[in-house]
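Page 42, continued from yesterday. The earlier attempt failed because a stray header line got pasted into the input along with the sequence. Redoing it now with the clean sequence only.
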Amino acid sequence: MFALDLPTENLLYLVLYLVTLVLHVVAMNYVVGGAMVLAGAAVYRLVGNYCDATRSIVAVIKDWLPLALGVTITLGVAPILFVQMLYKHAFYTANLLLFHRWMAILPVLIVAFYLLYLQKSEWLERRAQVVRAAVAVGVLAMFLFVAWSWSENHLLSLASQQQWTEHYAQGRMWYLTSETFPRLSLWMIGSLATLSVIVAWQLRSQASSTTVHRLALIGLCGAIGSVVAAGWYWLALPGAVRTAIGESANLVVVIVGGLGLAAFVAAWVKMARSGRMEARLLWLATVGLAIAIPCATLLREVRRYVALTEVDHWQPAVAATQESAQFGGFGVFLLFFVANVLVIGWIIRRVSQQVKHAS
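This time it went through. Structure tokens are written below.
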């Protein structure tokens, strides 16, 4: 495992990066998975009506999605800071090479944020179904663009100096490799698994058997689909990365993550069969995801390590992080990180209380 050989400063920032990235991923999965469900439901309404269970799932997602996007963006600040500490040269270079394309994610997110509020408004509910479907699909398309841009930026940051030079010389605004589509599919489809668990907790006190079946379908589609996407991604990975993942320490991470996903699947299968939202099974699904997501996130860094090592960017990145660590700032980060967590937790609690009071 490459992380075990890192100097103390680098290991600290890597751990902080992974922890904050996992928190961001969980919130992001709710947003992306929720947008997928809302878009699918809105399109389905063009040809028919859905049941009360689907209606309750759509209602809670639609109600919470604006807040979830705000939380996602807030939780995304810390990993962006840490990735700059760890991989400054590669990350900055990819940003600059994509230029306008990269900066476009900001206005796109702003528009998507306002459309989420429009999507839950009574005004839109009075419009024709085709208009509501267009808004839902438009929101999903915007999130897909942002996800594409992040995947593009990440993969470009792993390229060699020669590839960067060619990209700049040709004036390209896009960067496409054999990894782009499978990587994007893995993160998009996998988001449904996280969404199913969070929505299950939100609806656990009022979930009918049909609601359990619908959420189980969403969760199992996310889990099985992510395994298929992971297999596709495996075939697209360079041989050196597959070799690295096959090493003992990394293989343990794969096995542990697989066991977590298996626990998630087993929990939803049992709940689907019984038609009941059992607390112990819901906790099993939650713990399974809490194991699988960090493992997938750690394997993501193995891919980066192999790429940066091959193009001689790894050791300079390690040295640059050690130098930056001498200037401090960790205490300030920790203070504001804890403050943000407390504020977000307070907001979620207040909103939950208002929702319960209104119902």
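Notes: Residues 29 and 194 are 6 Å apart (CA to CA).
Reminder to self: strip header lines before submitting.
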